[in-house]
Automatic annotation (TrEMBL):
Identification of the protein by name: argininosuccinate lyase
Ranges where the Fumarate lyase N-terminal domain occurs: 33-320
Gene Ontology cellular-component annotations: cytosol
Pfam families: ASL_C2, Lyase_1
Organism for this UniProt entry: Xylaria hypoxylon
EC number(s) recorded for this UniProt protein: 4.3.2.1
Similarity annotation: Belongs to the lyase 1 family. Argininosuccinate lyase subfamily.
Pathway listed: Amino-acid biosynthesis; L-arginine biosynthesis; L-arginine from L-ornithine and carbamoyl phosphate: step 3/3
Length: 475
């Protein structure tokens, strides 16, 4: 009878390998492709800083000595430098960023000391810590870019406040407004995005360290001290929830889907306003393209708004990332499951393209040329029909009756092909005897916009009020 061979040792470097034996302990190659460092190597800095904080906290409890901590800290800083210099060598069994860093630390300071780094810690809390640190720092970058974008919008709204243009409902010309009012309309949406982003930041910026795999830490570790060292504003509430939770990523993806929705609508307006049919503005050459076939596509008549179309297209992708991760997470039992790794890709990708989108949007609004003469030429006297009704209301006519009278004037103008402001007083009085000579005041675009002086309106004072209020937030 052949001698029975002992089971093969666990794969070198696998943190979980002690229980598992056999030559296939590291899994098949296809499986490993889903758990490599493609995504999480971007978080090497956060992983190392979190490990240093954890080791320091363990040294305070006496689990590791001060000398061991000093060796661990020094070794981890060397590992970080290798990542920075792009000299870090990834080995086949480096399952993730945590395994890679600890494996390399053991090569530098010895496996015995490096092996104490993970005392009382789980990768479940470690990965959440890395992601929270990375995301909160990216949110700060997004915040800065969004503020810069809003400042450009506000500056243009103020300097170009006297430009009048049609306002639209149902894509039909409705009432005259200021170009600055249109700018501030979109600024209002982006302001809410800024406020929401800062609320998301507060929920992202919580430390999970000290929660273990799911049940907590048994070594009296000081969670608050680690949180303070790493710049967190607090700690997570429950260890099981900490391991299971990816809401902080879903909430950011939800924010991104709302923000890119707003960017898309802003881009759509600009695309329309840049067409020959409108001609309200022109994009700078650097944010437009031509055609590979039609030679006329890079003149004033036809300039392709590719930059804005790219922004418009991103909104669908953003919503898909949010919905996809929510569908992944909805059926997972508590606490951790490998499915949660599907949060990596959407988080990294969404941050990248929201920063790029803000850069494009900022460039577009900074460089576009406005054509106020085309805006004013698009105004139509029928857009003042509401002003005629409001003139009658000031004379004591009930609004419903005034609305009907004004509608008859519009019909007369259309039937006679005479502009409303050119109708004679006799023609107006034939519709309603209460019209007097001062009705001419209702047929002025400037008077129309200035009448809308309530806060939030399109009068000069109302638009300047919006600008002042938003500037106070941005500054």
């Amino acid at each position: 009878m052949a001698e029975k061979k002992a089971d093969a040792p666990p794969a070198a470097g696998m943190l979980w390998g002690g229980r598992f034996t056999g030559s296939n302990v590291s899994g098949n190659k296809l499986q490993m492709q889903y758990t490599d460092l493609t995504y999480d190597k971007a978080l090497y800095k956060e992983d190392i800083l979190g490990s240093i904080a954890f080791a320091r906290a363990n040294s305070k409890t006496g689990i590791i000595s001060e000398d061991e901590f000093q060796a661990i800290e020094c070794g981890l800083l060397q590992v970080m430098e290798e990542w920075k210099q792009e000299t870090f060598v990834i080995m086949p069994n480096d399952e993730d960023i945590h395994t890679a860093n600890e494996r390399r630390l053991g090569e530098i300071i010895g496996k015995d000391t490096a092996g104490k780094l993970h005392t009382g810690r789980s990768r479940n809390e470690q990965v959440v810590c890395d992601m929270r640190m990375w995301l909160r720092d990216r949110i700060k970058e997004i915040d800065c870019q969004l503020v810069a974008f809003l400042k450009v919008i506000v500056a243009r709204a103020e300097s170009e406040i006297d430009y009048l243009m049609p306002g639209y409902t149902h894509s039909q010309r409705a009432q005259p407004v200021r170009w600055g009012h249109w700018l501030m309309a979109h600024a209002a949406a982006f302001r809410q995005d800024l406020e929401r982003l800062r609320q998301v930041f507060e929920r992202v910026n919580l430390s999970p360290l000290g929660c273990g795999a799911l049940a907590g830490n048994p070594f009296r570790i000081n969670r608050n001290a680690m949180a303070e060292e790493l710049g967190f504003s607090g700690i997570t509430f429950n260890s099981m929830n900490t391991s299971a939770d990816r809401d902080f990523i879903i909430e950011f993806l939800t924010w991104n889907s709302i923000f890119t929705n707003h960017i898309s609508r802003w881009a759509e307006d600009l695309i329309l306003y840049g067409t020959s049919e409108f001609g309200f503005l022109r994009l700078a050459d650097s944010y437009a393209t031509g055609s590979s076939l039609m030679p006329n596509t890079f003149n004033l008549k036809k300039k392709n708004s590719d930059s804005l179309e790219i922004l418009r297209g991103k909104s669908g992708r953003a919503f898909g990332q949010m919905a996809g991760l929510m569908m992944t997470m909805k059926g997972l039992p508590y606490c951790y499951a490998k499915d949660s790794q599907e949060s990596w890709g959407p988080m990294l990708d969404s941050v990248e393209f929201v920063l790029d989108s803000l850069g494009i949007a900022n460039g577009v609004i900074t460089t576009l040329t406005v054509r106020p003469e085309r805006m004013r030429a698009a105004l139509d006297m029928t857009m003042l029909a509401t002003d005629v009704a409001e003139w009658l209301v000031r004379k004591g006519v009930p609004f419903r009756e005034a609305h009907h009278i004004s509608g008859r004037i519009v019909a007369l103008s259309e039937n006679t092909e005479v502009s409303m402001d050119q109708l004679t007083l006799e023609q107006l009085q034939a519709i309603d005897s209460r019209f007097t000579a001062d009705i001419t005041a209702a047929f002025k675009y400037e008077s129309s916009v200035e009448a809308k002086s309530a806060p939030g309106g399109t009068s000069r004072s109302a638009v300047l009020g919006q600008i002042q209020e938003l500037r106070a937030i941005l500054d």
